[in-house]
Write a structure and sequence with these properties.
Blueprint: H1 2-35, E1 47-56, E2 59-66, E3 69-75, E4 80-86, H2 88-106
Length: 107
């Protein structure tokens, strides 16, 4: 009877430890997902990656800021291609125009 109680206690203890480990792993992955995009570098250089998105396996599109200029780049494992230089004033003008049109249509 005592060995059965020891076996049950051992199973309960192992289950509790397994639940704790799985819970800690879940918390770790949630934190990684939540805060994974935080930049770890403190130094401010001339080149900043504004946005970086995967569009296909091993194919990315990025918006890069160099000084005061913005560039749209496409990249793969073997090359980086300049797609276009972005005129930030046109984007701002387009955003303003779009917001005005949305406001006009919502009235």
């Amino acid at each position: 009877m005592a060995s059965n109680m020891d076996s049950y206690f051992l199973i309960i203890k192992m289950t509790a430890v397994l639940a704790l480990v799985l819970g800690l792993m879940g918390l770790f992955f949630w934190l990684l997902k939540r805060f994974g995009s935080v930049k770890l570098t403190v130094s401010k250089g001339m080149i900043d990656v504004i946005e970086h998105k995967a569009i296909a396996p091993k194919r990315y599109i990025s918006v890069i800021k160099v000084g005061k200029c913005f560039y749209l780049l496409g990249s793969t494992d073997s090359q980086i291609t300049l797609i276009d230089a972005i005129d930030i004033e046109k984007i701002t003008d387009f955003k303003d125009t779009l917001n005005k049109e949305i406001e006009r249509q919502s009235k």
